Amino acid sequence: MKISINWLKEYIPVTHTVEEMANKISLTGIESSPVKLGEGVDGLVIGHITSVKPHPDSDHLKICMVDVGESEDKQIVCGAPNVAKDQYVIVALHGSHLPNGVRIKRGKLRGQESDGMICGLDEVGVPAQYMPKEFENGIYVFDEPQKPGQAVYDLLGLKDQMIDIDITPNRADTLGMRGAAWEIGATYDEKPTFTKPELDNKKITDLNDVEVKVEDKDLVPDYLIRELKNVTVKKSPLWVQRRLWNQGIRPVNSIIDAANYVMIEYGQPIQAYDLDKLPKKSLIVKKAQDGDKLILADEDKVLNHNDLVVTSGEEVLGLAGIVNGTKASVDENTKNVLLEAGVFDGASVRKTAQRHDLRDDASNRFEKGVDNGIVTEALTRVAQLADQFSDAQEISKVITGSYKEAQPVEIDGSISHINHLMGLDLPTDEIVKILDRLGFTVKVNGDKISVTIPTRRFDMSIEADLVEEVNRIYGYENLPNTLPAGMETRGGYSKKREFSNKLRDVLLGEGMDEVINFSLLSKKEVDAFNTIKTEYTKLLHPMTEDHEYLRNSLIPGLVRNIAYNQARNNNDLRIFEQARIFDRPKGQARPNEIEYLSGAISGNVSGDSWNTKAQKSDFYYLKGIVDELLMFTNADAKFEYKATSEYSNLHPGQTAKILANGQVVGLIGKLHPKYQKAQSVDETYVFELSIDALFDLNSKNIKSQSAPKYPSISRDLAILVKSSVENGEIIADIYANGGKYLNDVTIFDVYEGKNIKTNYKSLAYHLEFLNPNDTLTDEEVEKAFSLVKDSLVQKFNVEIR
Questions:
Q1: What is the model's pLDDT at position 696?
Q2: In this protein, which residues make up the domain named B5 (predicted)?
Q3: Which residues are annotated as a binding site for Mg(2+)?
Q4: For position 38, what pLDDT does the model report?
Q5: CA–CA gap between residue 657 and residue 665 (Å, rounded)
Q6: Distances (CA, A) of 466 to 131, 186, 365, 391, 442
Q7: Using CB atoms within 10 A of its CB, is residue 86 exposed (0-12), middle (13-18) or buried (19+)?
Q8: Known binding residues
Q9: Residue 358 region by backbone torsions, left for phi larger than 0, else alpha for psi between -120 and 50, else beta
Q10: CA angle in degrees (0–180, nearest 5) for 390-396-400
Q11: Could you point out which of 398, 442, 465, 711 has its C-alpha 20 to 30 Å from the C-alpha of 236?
Q12: What pLDDT sits at residue 438?
């Protein structure tokens, strides 16, 4: 909301600079910034066109002689289609400055001298979308004669100073000039004075040609109408137009401008209807039926049963509190007008405006709340202005569709308690004076006070609100500086947080980059990796279809990161995310939040160099990272990788569950080729681990030991085994039968293909035996080695090579 200083002066005396005022208002809790219109613009005056003739060398340029208050008229070449003799226009003289650094100089156009420029509003600083439509493609022409040579700034509001206040949602009372006057006046200990609108009693009659009905009074507590007969719709006065376009509102005509002016003045949106265009002499506010249509100037909106509408007969005239259609719009031919003022439920207005992408100044005010105590006065004010601008012959009394008398809120409080909460010791008189500056009525009974809050401050209801108001106006900067007292709380992380931080540091040490993604996914994404087989948790009112569900896996977000980067030719990626997923068991209303850790790699893990070749990412590279991660958990558990094909979007031959003591704690695998293609990513490998499950495992006791004094003995073992047998099963059996001196087992060769039987593979292992207390003998090693081979032959039917 932009507060015009010139307009504000009508309510309170203003003696401070706009910068000082914006700063002081900000200190009261409402962020404000100064706005100075027309900075750097100069040399603009009124010009009177005394003659116009065609340019000899152009079919669209005209040579104008213009009186600018000097001894001689100036010759100016103008190409505007609407330029004509006897017009009063804006002239930029030689040497003048226009917005965006434009400077006007004397020169020649097609051989004819031009001493200045005749301007349109957009050329002097009024945005094109806010200037009157009739001047969109031409120069601006004043409706009434003006004094040539007079500066145009005050006439057009080009040098007005404004305060742009960025209100919080609870302070909708400042969305009108009168409410802002109370706020700024309280800041400077000045009470605003307002003139109550009055109508010409001779014109007020018992007109009642229209039936007005509200079907749902819970959503529409106030709905009032006034009827104006035999109006003359024309352009509104210039002072109204300039105030509107400085507020970002395009002037239309004397009726619509009066309605928009009152919206800015009171913060109360007003609608106007052409009475003669109504399909039926009635206005009914009700819920729309599915399939109803609202016809707007640029498009039609298809409505549903959740939309609150204003209808006449079977026709929808507009969305209540948002926008009117073209069916009963007021134009220059309108003779009889209905003016509407109401209070509409903010939640209903917000949802409808959002659903149809129609949020505007009116809906913004209803969403945040309007003062139901000034609806009648605002309706009287707009009728007054409409009569003043359009000369109505008859004005009806207020026609009521719905009305709920506004009741001021009374808040009881204690002077001592207010002081205690502020940390001050203000006298009762000073607190009362501060509340009085805000327009509150205060009764004092000893330490107790009772404060009556005007209806415009519907954000206040409890004693804490009184404390805030006293604090704001007294000045936060005036509060004493004190150190907090009480017991100190020792900071630190929980055990689980320390655990998750350690795992994060491991991945950072592995050269992976951390990412942070939204916790909301689309339906397709939650379907893609529901590995925990949970019920989905859907938002009631999601922002978009891509953010409807709480995530059940971190992998979709990582895949999206991979796709985004690879689309921008950043192909070599190693990323991870540590965050929560949401698991909702069947029948449970709220999901459980589980800490997870997921990673993804794609592209090369190392590039080409003069002495090395590029190394591509693969399953085993990622498995090495996961192995190190699991080692750092220090869990007293047996970790295993169990091959699986149950995850539809992971490769069935390169995917495994990660088990700890037989319990599934995560997964690792390659994305399925079809899924990779659908997501537009190259070969990508992913893993996911439950931090909560890993944290719940028992920890190992770490014992230090000296380096071995005796040498180890190694044996190599090559076997031929069926392809279906997993390496993990072989290694587990070797450890089980290798005896107490078997220290380590490593696979160093895998071969399938030529000279190997079909569906078989050749595996080669390196076995290391070590006795830390004595020298091993060949007999001891051979005995253990024989047991290993015999067990493998018996259990897996291997062939020793």
A1: 93
A2: 406-481
A3: 459, 465, 468-469
A4: 86
A5: 8
A6: 43, 14, 24, 46, 11
A7: exposed
A8: 459, 465, 468-469
A9: alpha
A10: 125
A11: 398
A12: 94
φ, ψ for residue 253 (rounded to 5)? -160, 180
| Angle (deg, nearest 10), helices 254-266 and 375-390 | 150
User: β-pairing, 300-302 with 308-312?
Assistant: unpaired
What pLDDT does 735 receive?
A: 92
- Class (C level, CATH) for 204-402: alpha beta
**For residue 795, what pLDDT is reported?**
93
Rg (CA), the chain: 40
Given this model, what pLDDT does residue 234 score? 95
Token pair for 44 = 């603009």
- Tally Cβ neighbours within 10 Å of residue 461: 12
DSSP string, 451-511: EEEPTT-TT--SHHHHHHHHHHHH-GGGSPP----S--------HHHHHHHHHHHHHHHTT
Residue in the structure block whose two tokens are 């060769």: 749
Q: Pinpoint the alpha helices (H) of 251-374.
A: 254-266, 346-355, 361-368
Is CATH 3.10.20.30 correct for 2-37+161-187? no
- From the candidate CATH numbers 2.40.30.90, 2.40.50.140, 1.10.1740.10, 2.40.128.110, the one assigned to the domain spanning 42-156: 2.40.50.140
Low-confidence ranges of the chain (pLDDT < 70): none
The amino acid present at 521, given as its one-letter code, is L
CATH no., domain 495-695? 3.30.930.10
Q: What's the pLDDT score for residue 679?
A: 94
CA gap 13, 192 in Å, rounded: 8
pLDDT at site 612: 83
Tell me the per-residue pLDDT of 238-295, one tens digit each, with 9 for 90 and over.
999 999 999 999 999 999 999 999 999 999 999 999 999 999 999 999 999 999 999 9
- Kind of pairing between the strands at 394-396 and 204-205: parallel
Give the alpha-carbon dihedral of 144, 150, 153, 154, to 10 degrees.
-70
Of 341, 303, 350, nearest to 322 (Cα)? 350
Every domain range in the chain assigned CATH 2.40.50.140 = 42-156
Reported residue count of the chain is: 801
CATH of range 426-478; options 3.30.56.10, 1.10.10.10, 3.30.200.100, 3.40.50.2300: 3.30.56.10
